């Protein structure tokens, strides 16, 4: 991939959503265990980089920006100064050194990063998720989970990529959500609409439709859809998908349905499969993007 193509992909992620991860908002056990090794490796590399920077000062920036002890597989260190400028990177964002970090991670992630520059004390390790291009997958835009820490006038960070969800993970999330809707419907709907991490995993989310009104009552990614008419929902290619899913739930009680949908991470229309289940008066569903 040429530098110009890489730049285009980087710029293409700016409008995508960023997810702030608070320390008390823990990941689900399944997701946590899935990325445990990646998370520990990223934390370890960040700790190593922080120690090196404290010892070497700004001389460390050149070391961070080349292959060596601070590049491990897909992991690398990147550094931002107090003005928000990217000043070092051991990864694909090296081409953006000297530019504002917002070009690489988007405005929301930049704002969270820069909050560390406020005040005089060095911060604890924090974390954030945002869309970024995974060069190991040919520049495919994926979610990146980064840990970062302020040291002096700079913010040091290391992140790892999160893989796309697969069929088994979607079915597992549907099982979990269906059981919760059956036992505690109101609390579960509120949790889904509040982006509870139990119902928002990788690029998977739960949505729930009231079968009587045919309207969304919960949506794990976009709660603004709550109250809208699911029966009239169409795919980007004009196919009526809402009523088709309702028909499956009402006639069979469960099933699956394939359709085109806009992936909020890649901003592309991609094939998606929804697993559906009727739970009392609700349609509960989870969809995942099919491999291309």
UniProtKB/TrEMBL annotation:
It is found in: Cell membrane. Keywords: Cell membrane, Membrane, Signal, Transmembrane, Transmembrane helix. InterPro entries: sCache_2. Residues 157-243 form the Single Cache domain. It is a multi-pass membrane protein. Its main location: membrane. GO terms for cellular component: plasma membrane. The keyword Transmembrane helix applies. Residues 1-22 form the signal peptide. Coiled coil: none annotated. The keyword Nucleotide-binding does not apply. This is Cytochrome c. It comes from Pseudomonas linyingensis.
